[in-house]
Known about the structure:
Blueprint: E1 12-16, E2 20-24, E3 34-44, E4 48-52, E5 56-70, E6 73-77, E7 82-85, E8 91-104, E9 112-116
Antiparallel strand pairs: 1-2, 2-3, 3-8, 4-9, 5-6, 5-7, 5-8
Amino acid sequence: MKSLLVKKNSGQVFNIEGGTKGIIYPDNLSTDSTIVEVSMSGEYPVGGYSINERCTETLFMLEGEFRVRVGEEKYLLSPGDVLTIVPNCKYRIEGNGKVIDFITPRWDKKQNKIIEDNNFTL
Length: 122
C-alpha cells in the first residue's frame, strides 16, 4: 500500500441546520472509510434523531463538550474521549465543540436517516 496525503483544502465543506458544519475528506481509495472534521454549536439533528443503516461512526472529541444520546444511553464527551455509534442505533448530539468522525464503511448519505421525534431529547 502506498502512503496518501490528503490536504484540508481538498475536502468538501458542508453545513447542516442546527449549527453543524465541517469538512468531509476525500475517500482514501485504499480503505473503505471516510474521515470528517465536524464543528457544532447547537444540535444534530434538529427536532429528532439520526440513524445509520450501514455506517459505524467513531467520534474523537478534540475540543468543547458534546452531550450525546445513543438509544437510551446518555454520554458527555470532553476532549480526548472516543464514542462509537454502531449501525441501527438512534442518536442525537448537542453542544459546542469539534470532533474527528471516523466512518466505516465509506460514508453514503443514502444510508443515513433523520427521524423527526421531539420526544427523543437529551
